[in-house]
Amino acid sequence: MSPEVPFARWLAELEERTGRAADQDAARRLDLYVQSLLLAAERTNLTALRDPERLWLEGIGPSLTLWPLLPAWGPMVDVGSGAGMPGLVLACLEPKRPWLLIDSRAKPAAFLTEMVSALGVSARVTNARAEEIGHGQERQHGAGVTARAVGSLGLVAELALPLLRLGGVLVAPRGDHQPKGDALEQGLIGVLGGEMRLVPEQGLSGFSRRGQVALIDKRRPTPPAYPRRPPALGQGVRVVGGSAQAGGEQRQKARKGG
After folding, report:
1. Cα distance between residue 213 and residue 197, in whole Å
2. Interatomic CA distance for residues 140 and 214, integer angstroms
3. For residue 245, what pLDDT is reported?
4. What is the per-residue pLDDT for 102?
5. Counting beta carbons within 10 angstroms of the beta carbon of residue 172, is it exposed (0 to 12), middle (13 to 18) or buried (19 or more)?
6. Which end of the chain is flanked by fewer CB atoms within 10 Å, N or C?
7. Where are the domains of the chain?
8. What is the largest CA-CA distance in the chain?
9. 3-class SS of residue 54
């Protein structure tokens, strides 16, 4: 662990925010994860954070700050897991909690599979597209879903909400660029059965955060047609006369004067 990273202080701050205790081996697991990721990054493009201190402060730390926003119990899903931030990082805090880590790319999925075994966490890795998984047995599986750097708010919501059970929550860091999405994306969230609220990102000792996190609560069942396939996937909608109309269709009608 980098000597510049006050991990013990981070953990104390997080435990105070959550009211829960992290696993006593969390530091060891995260240290092993960081070392393994840095080694893998020498031969792959799993992460651009190839300096240990930067990886802790710009990757691990921001992932850890999401822990207080997760449901206190129940299985979790991480969409677009990549190198494992935030899903695998958060699993290190609660290794007995079930996680499903989803990534459609072979190299990240292989790295995640290797790390799940090495870290001894209760996670499964699925090398598939999230829009396909959303129509399978994992539909309505999660008490919570995390999604970081996946894409637009509409895309994140359409991939994640079908995977959530009623009462579950999507936790999606959005930075400070249009964190609410546009009107069509907000319409899509409603159609998917979600209600959104924004909370400020919180830092930890040694670094601060200025963005926002979108929390989307699953209030109603997601219609069976969602998630859609590309190119419709993630496209915002406007509810007209009680039915959802794709944003692209709306714009096409506007051009035609209809």
Report:
1. 8
2. 19
3. 63
4. 98
5. buried
6. C
7. 7-256
8. 64
9. helix
Report residue 207 CA to chain centroid gap. Answer: 21
Say how far apart CA 144 and CA 150 lie, in whole Å: 16
Look over the chain and give the mean of its residue pLDDT values, rounded to a whole number: 90
Q: What are phi and psi of 193, to 5 degrees?
A: 100, 15
0.85 exceeded by pTM? yes
Residues in the chain: 258
Task: Report the distance separating Cα 185 and Cα 115, nearest Å.
Answer: 35
Q: Kindly give, in sequence order, each residue whose CB lies less than 8 Å from that of residue 112, ignoring residues fewer than 6 positions away.
A: 81, 83, 84, 88, 101, 103, 123, 125
Interval 122-147 mean pLDDT: 97
Looking at residue 251, its pLDDT comes to 41
Q: Which CATH superfamily is domain 7-256 in?
A: Vaccinia Virus protein VP39 (3.40.50.150)
Q: Tens digit of pLDDT for each residue in 32-41? A: 999 999 999 9
What is the rounded end-to-end Cα distance, in angstroms, of the chain? 61
Q: What are phi and psi of 225, to 5 degrees?
A: -70, -15
Retrieve residue 47's tokens: 């992460």
CA distances from 129 to 2, 109, 150, 172, 233 (A): 35, 11, 12, 18, 12
pLDDT at 1: 62
pLDDT at 150: 81
Structure tokens belonging to residue 86: 């935030």
Cβ(177)–Cβ(217) below 8 Å: no
